[in-house]
Write a structure and sequence with these properties.
By secondary structure, this protein is mainly beta. The protein has 3 helices and 20 strands. It is 9% helix and 45% strand.
């Protein structure tokens, strides 16, 4: 559901698991699972869907008090009351996870978002300069796509338990268009060095944030500093891309993408895509 590259590590969260996936970015060796939540989930698909924490976002955070080498923040979608948990993980100097997971109740942060969005579904999170952005995913049921911007200083203070949950500085609604007649919805985002940001979006034929639907394809897009949306690439096939990480080399972008087939019998795929960044 989300992907972060940090040094030689690839970190992945899945929406129906209680663990963080940790992989090497240098080879194809099997990864490891790091437990985030206690307990177990049901094996029955419907029961598991009802129980899952629905971690849909994973953000890399900079150094801050108590986390001198930065941290990872995994966030639940907020689409149901039990999907309002986050996990903060401290990193070491090599970018590896250090210490136990710290659980955070997202209800105070999401309270104002539930008032803003009738069908809340947070699918992406990333730091853009001094702002922390959450991506609200739209769907075929006319729910809107939006970028919710928080002041990073205020959000950091809340994460550290030093102040109350902040309210957004602004909410930007973004029109992503359609693919084969189905509305595109955000699945992840990543900041670029110049203040612009990339996003992945999929055309999933579903009317709400709870039910899965057929995925008709995915796109990679760019949001300019003025909020203009530019579609950079439409992926061949019907990949349901849920996670995005980017390495920027001048005007060239190397993207790592992780997929979710919504089927526990089908392993996620790691895709690579190279793009030229428009001037």
């Amino acid at each position: 559901s989300a992907l972060v590259r940090c040094g030689k590590h690839l970190y992945v969260v899945a929406d129906d698991e209680l663990h963080l996936g940790v992989f090497s970015a240098d080879d194809g060796a099997p990864g490891q699972l790091l437990r985030l939540f206690p307990g177990e989930l049901a094996q029955d698909k419907a029961e598991r869907k009802a129980q899952k924490p629905d971690l849909e976002s994973l953000a890399l955070l900079p150094a801050m008090p108590g986390c001198p080498h930065g941290a990872l923040l995994a966030l639940g979608s907020g689409s149901k009351p039990n999907r309002q948990q986050a996990v903060l993980l401290m990193l070491d100097v090599q970018g590896g996870v250090q210490g136990p997971p710290h659980l955070i109740d997202l209800a105070p942060l999401y309270q104002s978002l539930h008032a803003q969005f009738a069908d809340l579904n947070i699918e992406g999170a990333f730091l853009l300069g001094q702002q922390f952005i959450l991506l609200q995913r739209g769907n075929q049921g006319q729910a809107a796509n939006a970028a919710v911007r928080f002041a990073w200083s205020a959000l950091q203070g809340w994460l550290l338990g030093e102040q109350a949950a902040p309210v957004p500085q602004c909410v930007e609604y973004l029109a992503l268009g359609e693919l084969q007649g189905v509305a595109l919805g955000f699945t992840d985002g990543a900041a670029l060095d110049d203040g612009r940001w990339l996003f992945s979006a999929v055309a999933e034929n579903t009317l709400d944030s709870y039910q899965d639907g057929a995925c008709l394809g995915a796109v990679i897009g760019l949001v300019e500093a003025d909020g203009q949306v530019c579609r950079l690439a439409t992926l061949d096939g019907q990949w349901k891309v849920e996670g995005l990480a980017v390495q920027q080399r001048g005007a060239s972008l190397l993207l790592s993408l992780v997929t979710d087939a919504d089927d526990p019998q089908i392993a996620a795929s790691l895709l690579a895509l190279e793009l030229s960044l428009p001037g």
